[in-house]
Amino acid sequence: MSAEHFEVRYRLQGDDPVAMARTIAVEQTIEFPQDLVTDAFVRDQVIARVVGLEAIQPDVSVATLRYRSHVVGRDLPQLLNVLFGNTSLLPGVRVEGLELSDAMLAGFRGPRFGVVGLRSLAAAPSRPLLCTAVKPMGLPVPDLAELVYRYAMGGMDWIKDDHGLADQPFGRFEDRVVACCAAVRRANRDSDGRCRYAPNISGPADRIVQRARFAKEHGAGGLLVAPGLMGFDTMRAIADDDGIALPILMHPALLGGFLTSPNSGIAHHLLLGVFARLAGADATIFPHSGGRFSFTPQQCGSIGAAAREPLGNLVPILPSPAGGMSLDRVGELRAFYGEDVLFLIGGDLHRHGDITATCRRFRALVTQPV
Question: How far apart are CA 217 and CA 178, in angstroms?
Fold first, then answer.
């Protein structure tokens, strides 16, 4: 790929893919009647080019469009805008692939920790890492903190807020962060552990940085961020902030509308893998097949691959399959994703009696030889 270009593959559903592809080329760049363009630079250096069109089934084609890199610069929101901005409003169009030049990728710092960094923090050079969630919403803060202590005593590497925990009257953000950070410190001291707590900072735009800094000041080991709620570039800004410098676990809340239709939206591996990395996530959480949601094994595999495959100078990150996973599926998940993975099990840890003992069982399942 030339440093001057990037390419996007669109799945088109309709009986005139040539017209659809040409419409996208104009809509995603100048949004102006092409027959009225008289400026040579606009015509030759701004409007996208259709460089490939392949029919894959009746009324379905894949079009490859080539864009000039200078229409984006080094601006993540503009990359998303050019990729799918106005076209997201058209029926029958889905973004299936993206090829960025190394020069464009060099404009993104990407994940600060990634696979190697998260493993180092956990002192776990080879096994899968473990995560659980603080839930259910509505429990008093002292009860949540007690759960955190018991999870950490059981050997969890990560404990994240459930994404529904915000700043509610029954559980204020600051009170929860202080209590849960203290619970993790106490458990790590009592067990010689290295557990880390990641509070949910997704919230009002004018409080996000404040919450991230408050969390770091009180000992949080990472941050839970939902870019569907607060924006991918907001997540990138938090990841790039050297004054925060904490691992980021990305949650997919509100992104499902881009993913669940085969005929519209953005492919799973792009949204939850490639864009997670461009925006600085160190782990990407998503529902694994067979849980509460509708992802297929192929879609989950594509996310895992996109999280870890080469992407310019951006380090690989950990896929984190979740969404109703259970202890009896750990072996299956381990075979599916390999060892570079962050397993996330929440509610099922409460089904087996003592939570600390259950967490230790979870830990044993990933420390034994495959």
Answer: 10
Structure tokens belonging to residue 164 = 């529904």
CB atoms within 10 A of CB 12: 26
Spell out the domain ranges in the chain: 5-105, 114-367
Count H helices and E strands in the chain, helices first: 16, 13
Instruction: Report the percent of the chain where pLDDT is more than 90.
Output: 97
Question: Which two tokens mark 120?
Answer: 């180092």
The residues facing 66 across adjacent strands are: 7, 49
pLDDT tens-digit profile of 118-139? Answer: 999 999 999 999 999 999 999 9
CB 98 within 8 A of CB 7: yes
Could you give the angle at the alpha carbon of 330 between the alpha carbons of 131 and 283, nearest 5°? 35
Task: Please give the Cα distance from 340 to 317 (Å, whole number).
Answer: 8
Q: Could you tell me if 160 and 198 are in contact, meaning their C-beta atoms sit under 8 angstroms apart?
A: yes
Name the class of domain 114-367: alpha beta
Q: Report the distance separating Cα 216 and Cα 201, nearest Å.
A: 11
On the CB side of 204, how many CA atoms lie within 13 Å of its CA? 6
Using DSSP, state whether 313 is helix, strand or coil: strand
pTM over 0.90: yes
Q: How far apart are CA 170 and CA 227, in angstroms?
A: 25
Burial class (CB in 10 A: 0-12, 13-18, 19+), 360: middle
Which residues have a Cβ under 8 Å from the Cβ of 9 and sit 6 or more positions away?
52, 62, 63, 64, 65, 95, 96, 97, 98
Distance between CA 22 and CA 334 in Å, rounded? 44
Give me the CATH topology for the region 5-105: Alpha-Beta Plaits (3.30.70)
